[in-house]
Specification:
Number of helices: 13
Bound molecules: coenzyme A
Radius of gyration: 20 Å
CATH superfamily of the domain at 13-132 and 206-241 and 268-288: Thiolase/Chalcone synthase
Strand content: 15-25%
Helix content: 25-40%
CATH architecture of the domain at 13-132 and 206-241 and 268-288: 3-Layer(aba) Sandwich
Mean pLDDT: 97
Oligomer: single chain
Length: about 425
Amino acid sequence: MDEQSHAQTIGYEDVWILGGARTPFADYNGTLRDVSATDLGIKAAREALKTTGVSVEAIDAVVASSVAQTSFDAFFLPRHIGLYSGLPIGVPALLVQRLCTSGFEAVLQAADQMALGKSEAVLCVGTESMSRNPIASYSHRGGFKMGQVEFKDFLWEATLDTAPRSRMGDTAEELAKRYQITREDTDVFAATSFARAVAAQEAGFFSGEVVPVTAEKFERERYQTREIRLPRNVKSLASDEHPRPTPIEALKSLKPAFKGVQTGGNSSAIVDGAAAVVVASGAFAKKAGAVPLARVVAGATVGVPPEIMGIGPAPAIRAVVAEAGLKLDDISRFEINEAFGAQYIAVERELGLDRERVNVNGGAIAIGHPLGATGVRCTHTLARELKRCRGRYGIATACAGGGQGVAILIENTDAAAA
Ligand SMILES: CC(C)(COP(=O)(O)OP(=O)(O)OC[C@H]1O[C@@H](n2cnc3c(N)ncnc32)[C@H](O)[C@@H]1OP(=O)(O)O)[C@@H](O)C(=O)NCCC(=O)NCCS
């Protein structure tokens, strides 16, 4: 693939992930349906600061990632996340959007700020409410002719890339054709994703990153109080809602969603949630007495044809491995976002990956894919998994609608020392 020749890559010397936290990921129109992306982000951000012990005074910047606008005050999302996380008023806040890879972009923006000497500690927050995507019109401000009303389901319309006129699902079907991926292959992979996520939940793996969400007020002196409201009768949401025991037979019985191999069971689940990590320089970590989780070694961003957008992780992985001077065999663990089952399998076949090293705690088919939150979640999960398995290098990556791929290579330095 010649896309790699245009890859933007960068290596980092002294950038670290200190730790993080996330909300549970809740099913579409489920327990978190009334919570805006801003409030989900505030919750994750506050918990990330708490768990890392980094003082709000020490944060130099907020980098937030979110794709859809899910409240009338959405323009202010990054700023409100900073304010209601208790950061000093002078700390600036930025929103980044690279579709499904936005969360990776947030971490890379933070790393870039460190490389440029602009920041020592950055709060990265990925957040998305898929349920609160609006029913929207772009043409009615000037009125409309009788009977010609435009209001449409934004979430559904937004999964159509109008350049190739392909739905995101169609791009996975195209990869299925090109890589000869069958419905059986796709369902087998999805069953593995569910089984691994359920096993990881049962083993308590996710309790190292998921914090329960309860009804809660976010206060800041002189400003309006915000709040998280849960549905009546729900006191708390403590774990991801979508993973469930899923025998292959249940997946086989589902109807195709896009006239091919993809179904509602072997595509990424549509969920609401947020994830946050604190990214800092080595000097900062030392000064703060923090024990970092992982070092950010390198990042890569590539473009691929929109009609096969899901292949993006393949050239991004090749580029990031080359940037770090490593080989694919050096990588102990991958977190590859499962936008669609066939999309993941295409990446696996393109690179000849060993599935035993990929998404070992389940992926987005089981856990869900809240667009702007996914990259932060995958990077944090990967850092924790490297610690658990005592692996040294890991890559977290995703494809993005429109045709892009982003990959982040991280190192568990404990394994290097061992
Ligand atoms: C593929 C997609 C269109 C399916 O949407 P949907 O038809 O609304 O899917 P549902 O969640 O209703 O699932 C369909 C059926 O499968 C069932 N199902 C899903 N997962 C299951 C599981 N693990 N076990 C058993 N049944 C399952 C559902 O219960 C549902 O059954 P029903 O029809 O009897 O209610 C949608 O999930 C999608 O677009 N996903 C990708 C989102 C996206 O594009 N993200 C960006 C990536 S670039």
